């Protein structure tokens, strides 16, 4: 250990990275980092100070805890502003003084802090609007499409206004707002935030988020106009499947907001939504839908929300029915524009038109600048791929994914839709010459903090990894969705269940997934403890709530993934009742330790399954169900141990042992063969720890043989794909796992890359070799689940794997073979981990000696395991090894 010449406490924060400025809990967890050049530095203790007004409180933290430390003070009150700072003591005796104070701010924290009514426009007829035509009533698909695209009452927007006068200096003003719908709040006609699609999508029956923003600098002395646009959003969308669509949440578009003004003289005033607000449905937005798009007629634009203007046709707002007990402060990173991309190329269509290619499949909207004659309508259609020299729109199914803008005339006009988003790489503009339109694609998503990077000397592997990153960004829009483009975009739980580890390396998902898991628990409670197929739950007629292995297991897998990544016991404790409730359901499903009942999606999208029957996988669905019963039972036992629930740990450990024994009796032969002789069967047996230790080698040999006989092509679906590389590696066949990532034959991970993919596809063959789209109705080109192999790439090629929760101790064990050079970086709560290596003898594959540099952040340790060397544990600092 060397003494430091430079040490300081940095990045003190409350709550998760990327979360909103105003905390969502009165007891936010605390984290801090230490920046020091001392080698091998660890924390021996810390003092956390809280300044609340003139009072300073101190709390001592023993040991090395510095990430997700439980809030040690009295809970924050609504609208309280406290300050935190931390000083630390090193194990080397060094004293590092506290740095600057870090503000911890709260707005309203519970329904008890909310005094605002929900108000609607008196002329809003949404509540009485009928559902659209559906195939259930005998309508054709074309009739259903026409009904979904009709400009009905519940496809419009509402606007709200209240004029206020500020008569004395303001010291602090906080605005909190939410909606039945999606809202853009303005002051004097300008948005108060860059957040889009607030309040996001939650299980609205039980949870409705509100946003809080500081608007102090917007309320100078004088008159101001408070205003809001409210569009339908998810709240009023028509959800369903196969031509049968209808609303889940009913009622008018409604706004609820409260503005708390603290004056310099000590006075406090609260302005809330009520009948004193004016409202109207008159708007230039004629139509808005998440799935169908937005239509804007600029000839109808007005200055209704500006200080100088007035809402045309406005009348006093009416109070709308709403349950305030649902209200929660937003905890997830806001949805924002996170990137802008220019047109990369243009493509001439077979019909004589022009398609804009943005070079990347993405999620967002187009922003256009154009001038022209009043009444000219510009139509923008979006698609992920081109098929036969035209936009490939068939996979969109009943989603039109089209925007329209009608010019006002008289000069240059700029526009982007407010209340929709699309998944696309390509767009076609008609109604004007596309060359006369300035266009930029605005990438939209929940603004998570990027934490993980990976690179090799193999261009195809790098492209695959970039595709994983882009599919994550594309599908993290308020919720973790399955796909971002067609008439679905639901929070399918099986997708994130298999992808949680990968996502948690690439991004800090604590606030995002932690918030979504609250909706998981709420919906789960509504259906008797069964883990939902998708969250938020929608009313639909295709999938009855039923225990579904791998999907329902989101209730156990994601909370434990978050705990392992962040070490936050508070989040684990909050989700523990949901975890236990699900495994109790599974216990009821199992007979003598086997789960062999009910419909199971199982190894969904096994490449051998027919396009229209993706559940017909090679692997016995009940083998998969029983395997997941074991996995979830072990996770609940692990959670119980972490939380100190000894009795529960014993109960669920015993159940896991019972299931494991039953699995071995029913599905494993004495020779180590699986009764389902498939890649996925062996993968779950090995990776989940279901096989007797003495049979792992034989099972691995059989798995490797199956893969090699298949010329290293993929034979797994949703369940097997994330773990087959691990199963091969754990059983001594890393070279076979590497070979699976070296072929571009169909089906394989590199086949889409060879076809020009810039995101992960839903199917291995979403596009066929001849350039045509897979004939199945369910075909997406932006689905992250099959990209879960990136987790293995990060650990086995990049060389960064966790050993303790929160990455306070980690393993560095990279191996060559797939690549001859690689680098990986992970920004943990303690600081950045970095591994860079080059193979001394690339031809030797995984046995090659490595020239490696490893950066270990302060207050952590790493076990370095390189070929030809005994593992060694090192502390913080930069280390160089030649094996």
Calculate the mean pLDDT score and round it: 96
What coarse outline follows from CA principal-axis ratios?
Answer: globular
Q: Per DSSP, what share of the residues sits in E-state strands of 2 or more residues?
A: 25-35%
What is the H level of CATH, i.e. the homologous superfamily of the domain at 111-331?
Galactose-binding domain-like
CATH class of the domain at 111-331: Mainly Beta
- Work out the helix count: 14
Total count of strands: 45
Helix content: 10-25%
CATH topology type of the domain at 111-331: Jelly Rolls
Which parts are unreliable, with pLDDT below 50 for 5 consecutive residues or more? none
Structural class: alpha+beta
Radius of gyration: 28 Å
Report the span from N to C terminus. Answer: 23 Å
Catalytic activity: Hydrolysis of terminal non-reducing alpha-L-rhamnose residues in alpha-L-rhamnosides
Protein name: alpha-L-rhamnosidase
Keywords: Hydrolase
Domain Alpha-L-rhamnosidase concanavalin-like: 349-441
Summary keywords:
single chain; 883 residues; alpha+beta; Immunoglobulin-like; Jelly Rolls; 10-stranded mixed sheet; 6-stranded antiparallel sheet; 45 strands
